[in-house]
Amino acid sequence: MNSFLQFLFPFIYWLPSINKDSLKADLLAGITGAVIVLPQGVAFATIAGLPPEYGLYTAMVTPIIAALFGSSLHLISGPTTAISIVIFSTLNTGGVEPGSAQYIQNALTITFLAGVYQLAFALARLGVLVNFVSHTVVIGFTAGAAILIASSQMKYVLGVEVERGSSFLHTWVDIFHQLPNTNWAIFAVSMTTLVTAVLIKRFMPKVPNMLVALIVGGILAIALGGESVGINFVAEIPARLPPISSPDFSLQTFKALGPQAFAVALLGLIEAVSISRAIASKSHQRIDGNQEFFGQGMSNVVGSFFSSYAGSGSFTRSGVNYSAGAQTPLSAIFAAVILAAIILLVAPYTRYLPTAAMGGIILVVAYSLVNWGTIRKVFETSRSETSILLTTFFATLFLELEFAIYLGVMLSLVIFLARTSIPDVVSLAPMRDPDTGKPTLVKESRTHNLQECPQLKIIRVDMSVYFGSANHIQNRLHYISEKQGIKHILVIGTGVNFIDMTGAEMIEQESDRLQEKGGGLYFAELKPKVNNFIHRGHFDEHIGAQYFFEQKKDAINKITTVALDHVMCQSCQFRVFKECDEPPLKGGTPLEIIPIEDYRNKT
């Protein structure tokens, strides 16, 4: 009961830890976060095709709910670039004008549905699902989203007309044809804003670069003549707290927006959990994936009733929050409250904010989205990861965004299954002690150039034995027995985490086949979980309990002294095992050959 209460009301357990010092640290971090999110909220709402105030509403409501019901001490939720572009690409179809009342209600409905999906995942304890989404998928999707975001802003940067709802290619065709019509005053404002933001971030990193750049862009726009030279300005943001709103609960709308909401939910969870874990690796906090699912779900469901569109964790704001010294989730709540106070004071001045300056800022945001360092490492180290990244990247550009996410996830799972279906089957052999010359530790024979026994093959399977890998392992066993002529095979199970029914049935078949040849398939050092499965399924009874050993040294001793052809051993020039140097394997009195099936009964 206590664990369930902690799941529903996690804030009850961290509120008592607040003290004077943590309160001060959280307040200072909250002030920093509020200043940073002010221009970001406006920019992200613009990307989503919503009025600027909706980004700020989201930055007020979402962080509070996510902080109360999540597990991370430092995660700051709110509007994000990736989700904003998904919202825009989803709703910018069907003739609904961005920013219109219908468009806004559709955005709120997607937010509500995404929150419901996330809550369902949390209650079903499916937090582990996010582990199946390759980080490379997120990198590729984010890079593609950055290109789309930059493309969507070019009309504001250049002051040209681009057909609404055009595809990526058609957008750039329109831009190319409209280049002669570029408004140079608008372009100057955009580039000045962009360069100012970049220079401040480079040389004065503690100064809020986006906020200062927007102010510089606004001053330049007015100095150039403002609307008289074609420069448009953002509409004045209402000086009020987030108003109550309502999603569209009609069944028809749910059916139409349900698939898109699922993509938003999935992307939001990936972002939130990934960012939480990244920050936790520095703060040494343990992150509960299910709790984060619950916190994100609650924030989106509640936010949809307070004019907030879908949000998730923000890496920039979360990183700044941690660096600013935040100690509890109260810092996120402080940031939201302080932002609300700032909006009430500065809202009338937003009418001096040129859309060209917003375009310049969004180009900076788009560029910062691309993780250049990780992309370079992926290209240098892994072909399969490169294929996942490029597939997701191009799918993001040329397909609907939700399908790009699904395609990337599916491809990463296919590649994962392909990798695990061809496990390493490593040949092992004893290594002789350099001082005594006696065989001691069992090592990889190829790596250490070790001689192997011509009658007994020792292998280690470095993968679970399941339906995907069973065929490859079976082919390897066939090769050993048929091509190498070895009918005694010892499997060291230290690398096997689990065996499924297909794998167990394959082992039974190979055991029967080798026993018919007068040999056997032996097992040593299986993990307890694997041993329990074999025992519960009575597979050990079918194969024979005498073929299973706790230690490889016991297995080698019994197989060499009981099961091998000792006549062959006596004439063998390879003295691989320590038993090879003892009677009767090295010669002398012949040993009574006892079938291994009867060995344990006799001993």
UniProtKB/TrEMBL annotation:
SUPFAM superfamilies: SpoIIaa-like
Keywords: Membrane, Transmembrane, Transmembrane helix
Domain of life: Bacteria
Domain STAS: 446-559
Membrane topology: Multi-pass membrane protein
Gene Ontology cellular component terms for the protein in this record: membrane
Transmembrane segments: 30-52, 64-91, 103-121, 128-150, 182-200, 212-235, 261-280, 330-350, 356-375, 387-418
Subcellular location: Membrane
PROSITE patterns: STAS
Record carries keyword Transmembrane: yes
GO biological process, one term: transmembrane transport
The keyword Transmembrane is annotated on this UniProt entry: yes
UniProt name for this protein: Sodium-independent anion transporter
Organism the protein comes from: Leucothrix pacifica
